TrEMBL record:
Belongs to the ABC transporter superfamily. The keyword Transcription does not apply. GO terms for molecular function: ATP binding; ATP hydrolysis activity; transmembrane transporter activity. This is Cell division ATP-binding protein FtsE. The keyword ATP-binding applies. The lineage of its organism: Bacteria, Pseudomonadati, Pseudomonadota, Alphaproteobacteria, Acetobacterales. Residues 2-230 form the ABC transporter domain. SUPFAM superfamilies: P-loop containing nucleoside triphosphate hydrolases. Pfam families: ABC_tran. InterPro entries: AAA+_ATPase (IPR003593), ABC_transporter-like_ATP-bd (IPR003439), ABC_transporter-like_CS (IPR017871), ABC_transpr_LolD-like (IPR015854), P-loop_NTPase (IPR027417). Transmembrane segments: none annotated. GO terms for cellular component: plasma membrane.
Length: 230
């Protein structure tokens, strides 16, 4: 469950940045109020600069609201302590637009990271990672380092790492921009399966074709405001 009430967010320093101030009035997100039930799927839409990445940053707790109330997976941000936030972050899987893979670690170990953070036994980790590598079609690249992979392969590794530990919330920023249509469709089927199992999913995208093929509840931002919730 996600619940936002009058949440605004301003990047520190933006108020002093004359150019940005003129265009944006300083706030990247303005008075957002919406709920996403557990197991809900939301498209996050809006033109470049509308605030999609900023909202995803708030939801994966990389930044805190400047004002307003936010509850993520039953945890109220005002009351959350540092240790609680670290635990909460481990229940969230994120597909970053720039993938953020660790370049010196083999693909296998990149994907295994969330399971290792949970101190799962190595034989279990091996089974889980090999099975998701099969699913993303990259078992043969398990020993490769991310810089040796194509953009689409790196994006599939990032997706595998985001979902391997069955997080309660998955946040994905343009997760199909390096995928072909068939791979994008498979990803959507995975997201639908995960939502069916109770995972909340928010996907920011510009892929209009994909949104048309998989119509679902939309959150649309314009100039940092929520202009559509339905
Ligand atoms: P979108 O993901 O929809 O393209 P963003 O969330 O990246 O939109 O951007 C929303 C607004 O916040 C824009 O005005 C952008 O310039 C500003 N912004 C984004 N990232 C930063 C940052 N790190 N520091 C300051 N301002 C930022």
């Amino acid at each position: 469950m996600i619940r936002l009430r009058d949440v605004s967010f301003r990047y520190e320093g933006t108020a002093r940045d004359g150019a940005r101030e003129a265009v944006q009035g300083g706030a990247a997100l303005r008075q957002l109020s919406f709920d996403v039930p557990q197991g809900g799927f939301r498209w996050l839409l809006g033109p470049s600069g509308a605030g999609k990445s900023s909202l995803l940053r708030l939801l994966h707790l990389a930044v805190r609201p400047t004002s307003g109330r936010m509850e993520i997976l039953g945890v109220e941000m005002d009351q959350a302590r540092r240790a609680g936030l670290a635990r909460l972050r481990r229940r969230i899987g994120v597909v970053h637009q720039d993938f953020r893979l660790l370049p010196d670690l083999p693909v296998f170990d990149n994907i295994a990271l969330p399971l290792r953070l949970q101190h799962r036994p190595e034989d279990e980790i091996r089974d889980e990672v090999l099975s998701i590598l099969d699913w993303v079609g990259l078992r043969a690249r398990a020993a490769a380092r991310p810089p040796q992979l194509s953009g689409g392969e790196q994006q599939r590794v990032a997706i595998a790492r985001a979902v391997i530990h069955r997080p309660a919330l998955v946040l994905a920023d343009e997760p199909t921009n390096a995928l072909d249509d068939q791979q994008a469709n498979r990803l959507m089927e995975l997201f639908q399966d995960l939502a069916g199992l109770g995972t909340t999913i928010v996907v920011a995208t510009h892929n209009d074709g994909l949104v048309r093929r998989y119509p679902s509840h939309e959150l649309e931002l314009a100039h940092g405001r929520l202009v559509r919730d339905g």
